[in-house]
Amino acid sequence: MKLKRFEALSLQEALQAVKAELGPEAVIVSSRRVQKGGGLFGLLSQSIIEVTAAVDRSSQAEVEPARVDRSFQSLLAKRFVPDAPPLPPVQAKADHSFSEALQVANALDPMTQHLYEMRQEIQRLREEQQDPERVLGPLRQELEGLRIVVGQVLGSQMDKRVEGLPGDLMDVYQSLVSQGVNPQTAHHLVRAVVETLGTAGVGNREAMKSLLWERMEEAVAVSGPAMSKHYGQKVMMLVGPTGVGKTTTIAKLAGLARQQDEHRRTVLITLDTYRVAAVEQLRVFAKILKIPLEVAVSHKDFMECMGRHQHADLLLIDTAGRSPKDQAGYDELLAITRGQVHVETHLVLAAPMAELVQMDTIRRYQSVPIHKLIITKLDEVSMGGGLYNVLSQTGLPVSYLSAGQRVPEDLEAATRTRLVELAWGQSPAQVLQERVPLTGVAH
Fold it and tell me: Cβ(278)–Cβ(303) under 8 Å?
């Protein structure tokens, strides 16, 4: 028996080559589609058909039609569509010949090529689904490049618009921009003042400052007054990236709850089992405050903790910092928020984080979903304009502001006035010096 491998661009061409060299009595042993060539990183590779055929020179008996049929079944069912059921046997005629087999191949080859392409496309989609960053990453880079170009164009136009502002408003505009407020946002604010007061009215500095302050407060949101425990059980979960101060903030919230009402039944639950120091830190605070601490390793543990403390007034949940690619951790957060118990999610952002990083963090956690924001580490920044940009763009309400490590002194309920003061560059120490009375832990 003689075996030989043939390569061609299509199944029909391969079978014609088999017939020309081995004769019509040749038998197709195997067939498959392969990539040949490649060039630079495989970009120039080409898909071809590889057919292995055999012929028994000692026997001149004609090839049985059923045998040819089985070779085509092998080609379609085994090589190109491995999960497909076997094709029904072809009812062969007595004079079935190799030329008829070529006609069948000619009809089936486009179908096999289409099936092969479909299989490749399905495989590509599966890979993209497993790693969406392969698709979204380049898109984000293009959008960022476009944002920079558009920003440059708008900046040039903004310079021309600013030249027409009255002298006092020009100073106000430059002060806001120097504190990190977006030029477009600053221009929108001062133009609103001009449109309301008129050109003559902006000469009244007190009226101008008061109106500008009012417009800036309207652009940001806060949670509102704190909520009393009489409104039922409160479950708060703090989420956010590593290092933003979630664990310390949880301790501050628990301290405030204890300070305001020593009879409030408060429970700490930590899901951050990755850092031993975080658990021990909360354990110390829980012991000082004389409140229970639960450590939940899994979602099942968490549900059992909730069951044990179903009569608690306030449950504070600490979570581990999550990477954008930590799908298991993300699913864990979703499972908690989609349970039977309503969980209020607070995303913790550190004030020193760059504005773009803060926006990206909000985008990544938005589907959890985010109900409120907590801003920490205000004592580590000198300008609050970038934070003001983020809050005015997203519209998310801020529940608490934190500046320092003292528990619970360095935490207060957020107000619009405080946020605008930060945007104007007042130091966090000065902003947080006068405490706003709190009557509850959160709204």
Answer: no
